[in-house]
From TrEMBL:
<feature type="domain" description="GHMP kinase C-terminal">
    <location>
        <begin position="300"/>
        <end position="378"/>
    </location>
</feature>
<keyword id="KW-0547">Nucleotide-binding</keyword>
<dbReference type="InterPro" id="IPR019741">
    <property type="entry name" value="Galactokinase_CS"/>
</dbReference>
<keyword id="KW-0418">Kinase</keyword>
<feature type="domain" description="Galactokinase N-terminal">
    <location>
        <begin position="12"/>
        <end position="60"/>
    </location>
</feature>
<keyword id="KW-0067">ATP-binding</keyword>
<keyword id="KW-0808">Transferase</keyword>
<dbReference type="InterPro" id="IPR020568">
    <property type="entry name" value="Ribosomal_Su5_D2-typ_SF"/>
</dbReference>
<dbReference type="Pfam" id="PF10509">
    <property type="entry name" value="GalKase_gal_bdg"/>
</dbReference>
<dbReference type="InterPro" id="IPR036554">
    <property type="entry name" value="GHMP_kinase_C_sf"/>
</dbReference>
<keyword id="KW-0299">Galactose metabolism</keyword>
<dbReference type="InterPro" id="IPR000705">
    <property type="entry name" value="Galactokinase"/>
</dbReference>
<dbReference type="InterPro" id="IPR014721">
    <property type="entry name" value="Ribsml_uS5_D2-typ_fold_subgr"/>
</dbReference>
<feature type="domain" description="GHMP kinase N-terminal">
    <location>
        <begin position="105"/>
        <end position="197"/>
    </location>
</feature>
<protein>
    <recommendedName>
        <fullName>Galactokinase</fullName>
        <ecNumber>2.7.1.6</ecNumber>
    </recommendedName>
</protein>
<dbReference type="InterPro" id="IPR006204">
    <property type="entry name" value="GHMP_kinase_N_dom"/>
</dbReference>
<keyword id="KW-0119">Carbohydrate metabolism</keyword>
Length: 400
């Protein structure tokens, strides 16, 4: 069964809970074309939604409990009060065993909605989850899980204002808040926005300060190009501190430079001169130039110069490797080998230290490029990488 088969998920729900679900909702994972570690610096990002994602079958319950099950963790049933102040809710969050930690995303989402949605009181629900995203590949399965849960709960409990196009920005902020307050990951707003706001065939140019966004056509197929996702099979938990350290370094640099966020640095040479710490100088260099690259990439896409995006992706990768220092060997090798085999360019995507890289390649070189990467991994004795041709799909929605 695939997650895009809502009827099969509804049938599995009926079997698990001995009642039919009231609906099935789905939220996608994402690939970010460019604009990495710019979101929490109030900058620009350019993600698009994948066809792969997370589906949630759900039904209300009147005992104030959220019960979460997943087809990918058949032996786990998590039950927590929706009220985050209930002692049982706090106990679960503080003591849940590792194999149940994934349930903090739907639980945290329910808790935040319960706390902050004033238009409708969010109550209990039974959820059955199914995901068809590559696990641990850095394609934002956690944001997809939060967003699918958020859509389901808002619709079940009548929070219609958050479901309207104008409300989805706020919903993204609430999902992000769940990740900050309950999961402990100080993420930016990109992943939740991508999952909730993207449209098929487009990337989302998001100004993370104003929240304003525009849909930018991403005509990969028409340009004879493919965006290949390379799951490097090297994984890293972002909750463990490296991501938070980078964020703190950026905030420290902004403070020393006397700006609200690194987005406000207008004179890069002067800013670099003003900072004594070489680490902070490298972080600033990345964020400022990456914001410029996002704007330039949007210009290229609008001008129909899609192939030229490749050089921009590679420049982003080198900056993430050398200035932000969050790349990893699997991504570096994938980008180098892809270019040698005729790709236009490529880069690591997401938070860093593991996950996936993307490679922009002419359609007729996809096999050659993937084979070159596979062979390079084999020579090094690394686990075989997985490949996915990325397609820009629609954002979160109700399926049934
Ligand atoms: C992770 C975070 F969740 C995003 O907010 C973003 O900062 C990204 O890393 C890096 O661009 O996916």
């Amino acid at each position: 069964m695939t997650a895009s088969d809502p009827r099969a998920l509804a049938a599995a729900f009926t079997e698990a809970y001995r009642r039919a679900p009231e609906g099935v909702w789905r939220a996608p994972g994402r690939v970010n074309v460019i604009g990495e570690h710019t979101d929490y610096n109030d900058g620009f990002v350019l993600p698009f939604a994948l066809p792969q994602g997370v589906s949630v079958a759900a039904a209300r319950r009147d005992d104030g409990v959220l019960e979460v099950r997943s087809l990918q963790a058949a032996d786990t049933v998590v039950t927590v009060p929706v009220d985050p102040h209930a002692p049982e809710a706090r106990r679960w969050r503080d003591t849940a065993p590792q194999r149940e930690r994934w349930a903090a995303y739907p639980a945290g989402t329910a808790w935040v909605l319960r706390e902050h949605v004033t238009s409708a009181p969010i109550g209990g629900a039974s959820l059955l989850i199914d995901a068809d995203l590559l696990q641990g590949a850095g394609l934002s399965s956690s944001a997809a899980l939060e967003c699918a849960t958020a859509l389901a709960l808002c619709e079940l409990y009548g929070a219609a204002d958050l479901l309207a196009p104008a409300g989805r920005r706020e919903l993204a902020r609430l999902a992000q808040r769940a990740e900050h307050e309950y999961v402990g990951m100080p993420c930016g707003i990109m992943d939740q926005s991508a999952s909730l706001l993207c449209t098929a065939g487009h990337a989302l140019m998001l100004d993370c300060r104003s929240g304003l966004s525009t849909q930018v056509p991403l005509p990969l197929e028409d340009s004879g190009l493919r965006l290949l996702v390379v799951d490097t099979r090297m994984h890293h938990e972002l909750v463990d501190g490296d991501y938070g350290r980078r964020r703190a370094e950026c905030e420290r640099a902004a403070e020393l430079l006397g700006v609200a966020a690194l987005r406000d640095v207008k004179d890069l040479p002067a800013a670099l001169k003003a900072l004594n710490d070489p680490v902070l100088r490298r972080r600033v260099q990345h964020v400022v130039t990456e914001n410029h690259r996002v704007e330039a990439a949007v210009g290229l896409l609008r001008a129909g110069a899609t192939a030229e995006l490749g050089a921009m992706l590679t420049a982003s990768h080198l900056s993430l490797r050398d200035q932000f220092e969050i790349s990893w060997p699997g991504a570096d090798v994938a980008v180098e080998e892809a270019q040698r085999a005729g790709a236009r360019g490529g880069r690591m995507v997401g938070g860093g230290f593991g996950g996936s890289a993307i490679v922009l390649t002419p359609a007729d070189r996809v096999d050659r490029v993937s084979e070159a990467i596979r062979a390079a991994y084999e020579r090094r004795g690394w686990e075989e990488p997985r490949f996915l041709t990325a397609v820009a799909a629609d954002g979160a929605r109700r399926l049934l």
